[in-house]
Amino acid sequence: MTDALDRIRVGSAPDSWGVWFPDDPRQVPWERFLDEVAEAGYSWIELGPYGYLPTDPARLTDEIAKRDLRVSAGTVFTGLHRGPAVWESTWEHVSQVAALTQAMGAKHLVVIPSFWRDDKTAEILEPPELTGEQWAHLTKGMERLGHEVKEAYGLDIVVHPHADTHIDTEDHVEHFLDSTDTELVNLCLDTGHYAYCGGDSVKLIETYGERIGYLHLKQVDPAILADVQAKGTPFGPAVAQGVMCEPPAGVPELAPVLAAAQRLGVDLFAIVEQDMYPCEPDRPLPIAVRTRKFLRSCGA
């Protein structure tokens, strides 16, 4: 009998339904996502790209309540390594998402750093390594964001290491954590992205446990990942190739990750995010049902 993971709150996200953009003809309508995520047995969801789900709080509250769902977090994209010049435009975007997140009763804002190469065209936008000055902008900017979001909206920011961003590998993640204040900034550990970039999720949880504020659950297909790395394939095309796969077929093993998270002794969201853009509209639901069943077998 698997031990019950009573500190882990499992959910899913629009990402697991192939949703990457507020509006895209290749994505399922938001009503279908909400119907199917509830049908698959999840009770928690994320907002996904701002504007995909209704942004009117009263309407969204009604839509999620009638499906017995609750919101765990909103998501924002930031380029704070570019320095104070981007603060105002960043805050405009963040405050919009944070206001809706707060209105939904959620407590977390997932913050994704900007991509250094275009995830559709593969165009190199910036060098993959930051200068010392850019690291300082990034870390101080994230601390400021954490402070301002907490003051204005009562939310905790959790920064999401992500493939093809400046916070990706183990070295970059550890440097970021060592350079930021745990009172202001913690981590959304995405098990798939961290494995994609060569990191060990269990080791990170055991080493930096007090900084783990949120989890995204996904796996990578090792064979496809090896091909992606050998060819230098950007993240978008790698996803289209199927690099993020259905559990338990890939790495890392999720049971040890969840067990390590449970040992931290704090309540944590663990939101399933199987990147599948673009995907056939009938594909996500059966995968979501099987994934929920698999996570139950792990005790979650």
Concise synopsis of the structure shown:
Helix content is 40%, strand content 16%. It has 300 residues and is α/β, with parallel strands linked by helices.
Question: How would you characterize this protein structure?
Answer:
The chain has helices at 30-39, 57-65, 87-103, 132-153, 170-178, 191-196, 201-207, 222-231, 235-240, 254-263, 284-297, and strands at residues 8-12, 44-46, 70-78, 108-113, 156-159, 186-190, 212-217, 219-220, 244-245, 268-272. 40% of the residues lie in helices and 16% in strands. It is globular, with a radius of gyration of 18 Å. The model has no long low-confidence stretch (mean pLDDT 97). By secondary structure, it is an alpha/beta fold. It has one domain (8-297): TIM Barrel, CATH 3.20.20. It is built from eleven helices and ten strands. Strands 1-2-3-4-5-6-7-10 form an eight-stranded parallel β-barrel, surrounded by four helices. It has a two-stranded antiparallel sheet with strand order 8-9. The longest helix is centred in the middle third of the chain and has 22 residues, at 132-153. Helix 5 links the parallel strand 5 (156-159) and strand 6. Residues 34-296 form the Xylose isomerase-like TIM barrel domain. Keywords: Isomerase. One of its GO terms (molecular function) is isomerase activity.
